[in-house]
Specification:
A five-stranded parallel β-sheet has the order 2-1-3-4-5, sandwiched between helices. Helix 1 runs parallel beside helix 4. It has a single domain, classed as Rossmann fold (3-Layer(aba) Sandwich), CATH 3.40.50.360. The protein has helices spanning 17-28, 69-76, 96-109, 123-130, and strands at 2-8, 32-37, 51-56, 84-90, 113-120. By secondary structure, the chain is α/β, with parallel strands linked by helices. It contains four helices and five strands.
């Protein structure tokens, strides 16, 4: 399966280790996985994927807000409606559950089918979760 992992860390930086671990888990199951950087890419290639996983973290330890770039990337992909998807948020601070709720609302607004959401605790946890995508 072709999977896009939309990487949206709270600040502009290379994909963190937990995102790389999630991708490693998906690839170990035979999936073709590409990382789409929400800070630098526009999301126009997202319709070409069968599954879209968005991975982010709250913008601060005391907020449930997520980076605004996620909305930009998902809305630019003209036909992501009806695509199966996952929503993952890195555990960070007090309002991680609110952040995952906000992420799921954005995905549902774009018409995506969210069939899995979870909070990532660590790199090894992310890799284990990645092995269950598409299974």
């Amino acid at each position: 399966m072709r999977i896009a992992v939309v990487s949206a860390p709270a600040s502009r930086k290379a994909p963190p280790e937990y995102i790389k671990a999630l991708v490693k888990g998906m690839e170990s199951m035979g999936h073709r996985v590409d990382i789409v950087d929400a800070w630098t890419e526009d999301g126009m290639r997202l319709p070409g994927y069968e599954y879209i996983a968005v991975v982010t973290e709250p913008v601060s330890a005391f907020s449930g807000k997520i980076p605004a770039n996620i909305t930009k990337v998902l809305s630019a992909g003209s036909s992501v409606a009806g695509k199966k998807s996952a929503a993952f948020v890195k555990k960070s601070g007090l309002f991680t559950s609110r952040a995952i709720s906000n992420l799921m609302k954005i995905k549902k607004k774009e018409g995506m089918v969210v069939n899995w959401s979870d909070i990532l605790l660590s790199g090894p946890h992310a890799e284990a979760l990645g092995k269950h995508i598409g299974a």
